[in-house]
Write a structure and sequence with these properties.
This protein has 15 helices and 35 strands. With about 700 residues, the chain is an alpha+beta fold.
């Protein structure tokens, strides 16, 4: 049986524009537009999302440099379908920018089954779900917020399944997880971590790994009462959200001692005197002063104790922090300075007011994680924070680590649905890039290992750090890239995070070398993250970045072309092929022997499934070294499948069997030395047939 399918907007984009220059481009569930008048968000939904729009509820909106973005949650019988969302982006000029459509096609039969689950079948209840999730997670550290259980629909192979979405956030190393438990029997359906560490030193975070840990589990009721009491006590000591105008000073590394001194030989155990030339005395802006005591709490950063060990934030009576490495007060000033400076940089790019990104005090613990050599961004509901561990090099001594974790916060605060797809690897890769972008702008940044991520904290005996020049890493669209995963592709092994950081960072270095500003590059990348929902893939994110570059700098395509080239180099995007001819499918072509011949690259075939037994074959001659890409777009209410066969017409080389209204793609490279005959087959699975209801398009390019 096929799995329950996405109803993708790409399947509904066969339309004619009244404007001669109007155009669209679709990559999986993302479509970007140019010169298309938008109308209202509701009109966009009706036109490009179709029948699934009826179940969508507007849950939030935000603004960016280019426009306003509307985010919709798909509902069924009053409950959300998890990771089923649609984002509509409309430019300030009234033009449609993009539509990211993760809505699910729910049949009448599936809706009826869901109604029965909700109203007729027994359920374990919220408390039992919380108990089960607590045991699964083996909670051994204090809670950061009260656990929460909500009923949702989870997409499964037989439609939708009623589940409890349980969110538990605790101090590291327990950390946070979201778990989906069957509403009927409490069994675990799936889970993911909401604590995002900078590297997988102790293995990937998973419930399976936690189940093997020794030691007991905290009592849930007692832990929940304790966190409620602690939160009540903290309400009266919140950070100031407005600038105080009171500044202090403190010593920092900028960005780190190795880069500043251009010296590979410096280690964590080097003599204190070695570090003296690496210190900078920097302003600490907009501090809080209470009864003559200065604290590192400002409009964008709030240093506080969140995780073990219980280290109180440093304070002074004169606003001057004089501590150096080895003293927690230095960790406090280093983190405060870099985060405060980075937020002000983001605002200098234009992300202010209604376009702001984390324009608020972000809680930060500079001595957390129970002393582990790691750092993380954690979120749960409306709360989020950063924590940095001490071990080997203190993570809070390296601007790369600080800004990497801030990168996670940037993602989550632009897109609260940032999960699924390739978001694991992209979150880590973007964090590496965001840190690398700043380091590259410092005095020795362009000469001291600019390709290194974590120049001080990593690339030593503690851990190897990561690289941002892995141009040998290649993307495979059939895979999903999680965080910190070891990947082997075409005999080359790399970390999944590097597959994303590399094209971003290589674009930056190429554009700066061409005389373009780092500010503009960062502006493009930040802008591209708006207007997306869950399940984002690298192909979609790359398309959004190239499109943002075109829209922000329409008169200077150097930006868009450079990003395009770097993404192509990693196989994340394909080369832009000039528009090709169109042809009509002709019967009878039900076998390889009677296949319609396609002889020109980028040909679009207008086809029809004449009956539920129909098979349509197409013949292509592929020269050595070329790759055939076939893209099948059915009509929005039908499911047709795509198959690729060898020259004998029977040996299958590839297939794609996605769902109703969903785009299928297959590809094949001729690695031989002579032309190769290939056969592409379109096969009926379900939905419409005939001249009116059986239409599809097939694009073939090589």
């Amino acid at each position: 049986m096929k799995t329950f399918r996405l109803s993708l907007v790409a399947a509904t984009l066969c339309f004619a524009f009244s404007h001669a220059q109007a155009a669209s481009q679709s990559v999986d569930s993302l479509s970007v537009f140019s010169n298309v008048k938008a109308g209202s968000p509701q009109q966009v939904l009706q036109q490009y999302v179709g029948q699934s729009a009826a179940g969508l509820t507007l849950v939030r909106s935000n603004e960016s440099l280019l426009g306003k973005h509307y985010y919709y949650q798909q509902m069924l019988h009053g409950l959300p379908i998890d990771q089923a969302d649609v984002a509509v982006s409309i430019g300030h000029n009234g033009q449609l920018l993009k539509v990211h459509n993760q809505a699910r096609q729910v049949s009448a039969e599936d809706a009826a089954k869901a109604f029965k689950q909700l109203h007729s079948l027994s359920k374990i209840g919220n408390e039992a779900a919380l108990d089960r999730a607590w045991a699964n997670m083996k909670v051994q550290h204090a809670l950061l917020k009260a656990p929460q259980a909500d009923m949702v629909w989870v997409v499964g192979k037989d439609g939708v399944q009623l589940a409890y979405k349980v969110q538990i956030a605790a101090e590291m190393p327990t950390g946070g997880f979201v778990q989906y438990l069957s509403a009927q029997d409490g069994s675990l359906l799936k889970s993911y971590s909401t604590s995002l560490p900078r590297h997988a030193k102790n293995g990937e975070r998973s419930l399976e790994a936690r189940a093997t840990l020794l030691g007991g589990t905290l009592d849930r009721a007692a832990a929940t009462q304790a966190v409620a009491k602690r939160q009540a006590q903290q309400l009266s000591s919140g950070a100031l959200a407005t600038p105080s105008g009171i500044n202090g000073t403190g010593f920092v590394f900028d960005p780190d001692p190795r880069t500043t001194l251009n010296n590979d030989s410096i280690t964590d155990t080097s003599a204190a005197s070695v570090f003296e030339p690496a210190y900078f005395n920097k302003p600490l802006r907009d501090l809080t002063v209470t009864n003559g005591v200065y604290s590192l709490s400002g409009p964008f950063v709030n240093i506080k104790n969140i995780e073990s060990p219980a280290t109180a934030p440093s304070t002074t009576t004169n606003g001057a922090w004089t501590a150096k490495r080895g003293n927690n007060a230095f960790d406090d000033t280093n983190v405060y300075f870099h985060l405060d400076q980075n937020q002000r940089y983001i605002q200098s790019l234009g992300f202010t007011g209604t376009k702001s990104i984390i324009n608020r005090p972000l809680d930060v613990d500079t001595d957390g994680l129970n002393g582990d050599d790691n750092s993380h961004y954690s979120y749960g509901g409306a709360t989020d924070y950063l924590a940095f561990g001490h071990g080997c090099v203190n993570d809070s001594e390296d601007a790369d680590v600080i800004l990497h974790e801030y990168g996670h916060a940037i993602h989550r605060n632009i897109n609260s649905n940032w999960s699924g797809g390739d978001t694991g690897a992209m979150g880590e890769g973007f964090g590496d890039y965001w840190a690398g972008s700043y380091s590259y702008s410092t005095a020795n940044g362009k000469t001291y290992h600019p390709e290194w991520a974590f120049s001080w904290d990593g690339h030593n005996s503690c851990w190897g750090g990561r690289m941002m020049n892995r141009t040998d890493a290649k993307y495979n669209s059939s895979k999903t890239y999680g965080a910190h995963s070891s990947v082997t592709e075409n005999g080359v092994t790399f970390v999944s995070d590097e597959l994303w950081s590399t094209p971003l960072f290589q674009s930056l270095t190429a554009l700066v070398a061409a005389g373009k500003s780092r500010d503009n590059v960062d502006k493009i990348i930040l802008e591209a993250h708006f207007g997306l929902g869950s399940g984002v893939t690298m192909r979609q994110m790359a398309t959004s970045i190239v499109n943002a570059a075109k829209n922000l700098f329409p008169n200077d395509l150097t930006y868009a072309n450079t990003f395009q080239a770097k993404f192509e180099a990693q196989n994340i995007l394909g080369a832009v092929v000039p528009p090709g001819p169109s042809m009509n499918e002709t019967e009878s072509n039900n076998t390889a022997a009677t296949a319609n011949t396609v002889s020109t690259t980028n040909t679009t075939v207008n086809g029809t499934m004449s009956a539920n037994s129909d098979l349509d074959f197409f013949k292509v001659s592929l020269n050595p070294g070329l790759t055939l890409s076939a893209t099948l777009t059915p009509n929005s209410t039908s499911d047709y499948d795509l198959h690729l066969f060898d020259s004998n017409g029977t040996t299958q080389l590839a297939s794609s069997v996605k769902g109703t209204g969903q785009v299928d793609t297959v590809s094949y490279k001729n690695t031989g030395t002579s032309p190769k005959t290939l056969y592409v087959r379109v096969k009926y699975y379900s939905g419409g047939t005939g001249a009116t209801n059986g239409k599809y398009t097939l694009n073939l390019k090589w």
